[in-house]
């Protein structure tokens, strides 16, 4: 049996994910594993079509595909995302069609499900036979029970391949056949001295006209007082390297080598309102946007947009992608920011509605920025907070020393056992319910 492993770590063979793959290889020496370094070699793959074509030939010859990658900001690494785009752009999907597939990820399980949902959607779009996903903690290989659980997953996957098991589809194909055209003149919204930055990857190309029109209209609503920044105009040397240099003091390995760090500090972090504008590409935004989010990890697990107002301007079928909407919401809550709203061109069938929604987005963002309004977090923000709190305190304090300092100084280590008033109350109540009178009343 021939398994092709599409490797999604920018760190290559030394990544934690590849240690899990190496473990599987050791336990199944009779199985042929073809490991292809996608994320680390994406520039070479993109520039050299012969290399890309060779990968596609190997996929076509394989019996099954294993997507193996570490999580990067709710999803796959930007370079891995770019490979998925290339498969679509170069019409190489037939090589994947009908192939059994599985997903193996490593992380601290912070929104691992959104990455799994994304890859499951890609497999459905490519007509692959998706078996299952396996989410491993980074330290699971040190635990005998977890090693056995991983092998159970692998045995099931290999059995499904050998028996040519059928696979149920989870997601419908995406459809989007509306385009935004403004109807009304922009209703002006004064920024009242608040700094508004609109960040976009919009380009003058087919499929981007709707996004560009929304962008132009929203800029006019802000009465020319919003700063529009195009990601394509920034010099970004590459994606996150996964080197964890930032773990000590939030200094990035790219510092001084491209525009990103200074732009982030001097433009984004000084803004009161941030609007992210992009078009949906294969169940997410573009790989350019993904690289942007990956590169923000020099802040590690520290909320760098706390207190800001964030909105999204999206062209594409967002209503068909609850996974992506959840990513937008969770990202904002993780940042301790406020999600003002999401406007898409899906409403373009109702003339003038998108115009009104854009005006409302602008007006509310300024209103909320002026009143410093941040809505309370939902499970998405609170659950993420607790995962980071516990992991930084424990398993990953090293190498994330900067996180530990920040969490300690900003009261993020809010463990419930440290609330002595609650502990005292619980002690007293537990004593009271044991008294005969209280016990009888409870009966």
UniProtKB/TrEMBL annotation:
The keyword Flavoprotein applies. Keywords: Flavoprotein, FMN. Residues 1-129 form the NADPH-dependent FMN reductase-like domain. This is NADPH-dependent FMN reductase. Coiled coil: none annotated. The keyword Flavoprotein applies. InterPro entries: Flavoprotein-like_sf, FMN_Rdtase-like_dom, ISF_SsuE-like. It comes from Dendrosporobacter quercicolus. GO terms for molecular function: oxidoreductase activity.
């Amino acid at each position: 049996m021939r398994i092709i492993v599409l490797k999604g770590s920018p760190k290559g063979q030394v990544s934690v994910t590849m240690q899990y793959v190496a473990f599987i290889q050791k336990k199944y020496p009779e199985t042929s594993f073809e490991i292809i370094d996608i994320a680390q070699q994406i520039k070479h793959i993109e520039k050299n079509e012969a290399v890309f074509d060779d990968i596609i030939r190997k996929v076509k010859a394989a019996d099954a595909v294993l997507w193996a990658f570490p999580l990067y900001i709710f999803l796959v690494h930007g370079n891995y995302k770019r490979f998925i785009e290339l498969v679509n752009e170069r019409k190489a999907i037939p090589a994947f069609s009908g192939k059994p597939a599985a997903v193996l990820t490593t992380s601290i399980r912070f929104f691992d499900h959104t990455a799994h949902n994304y890859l499951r959607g890609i497999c459905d779009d490519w007509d692959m036979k998706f078996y299952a996903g396996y989410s491993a903690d980074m330290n699971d290989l040190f635990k005998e029970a977890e090693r056995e659980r991983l092998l159970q997953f692998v045995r099931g996957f290999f059995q499904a391949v050998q028996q040519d098991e059928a696979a149920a589809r989870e997601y419908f194909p995406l459809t989007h056949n509306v385009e935004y055209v403004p109807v009304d003149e922009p209703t002006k919204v004064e920024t009242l001295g608040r700094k508004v930055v609109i960040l976009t990857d919009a380009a003058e190309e087919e499929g981007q006209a709707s996004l560009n029109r929304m962008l132009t209209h929203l800029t006019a609503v802000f009465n020319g007082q919003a700063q529009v920044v195009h990601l394509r105009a920034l010099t970004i040397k590459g994606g996150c390297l996964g080197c964890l240099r930032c773990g000590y003091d939030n200094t990035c390995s790219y510092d001084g080598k491209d525009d990103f760090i200074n732009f982030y500090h001097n433009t984004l972090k000084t803004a009161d309102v941030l609007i992210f504008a992009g078009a949906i590409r294969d169940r997410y935004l573009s790989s350019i946007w993904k690289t942007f989010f990956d590169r923000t990890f020099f802040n590690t697990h520290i909320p760098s947009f706390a207190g800001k107002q964030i909105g999204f301007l999206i062209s594409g079928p967002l209503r068909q992608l609850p996974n992506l909407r959840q990513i937008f919401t969770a990202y904002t809550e993780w940042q301790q920011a406020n999600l003002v709203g999401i406007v898409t061109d899906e409403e373009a069938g109702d003339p003038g509605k998108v115009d009104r929604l854009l005006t409302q987005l602008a007006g509310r963002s300024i209103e909320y920025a002026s009143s410093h309004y941040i809505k309370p977090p939902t499970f998405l923000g609170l659950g993420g907070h607790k995962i980071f709190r516990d992991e930084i305190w424990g398993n990953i304090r090293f190498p994330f020393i900067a996180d530990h300092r920040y969490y300690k100084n900003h009261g993020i280590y809010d463990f419930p056992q440290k609330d002595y008033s609650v502990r005292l109350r619980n002690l007293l109540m537990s004593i009271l319910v044991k008294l005969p009178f209280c016990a009888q009343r409870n009966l």
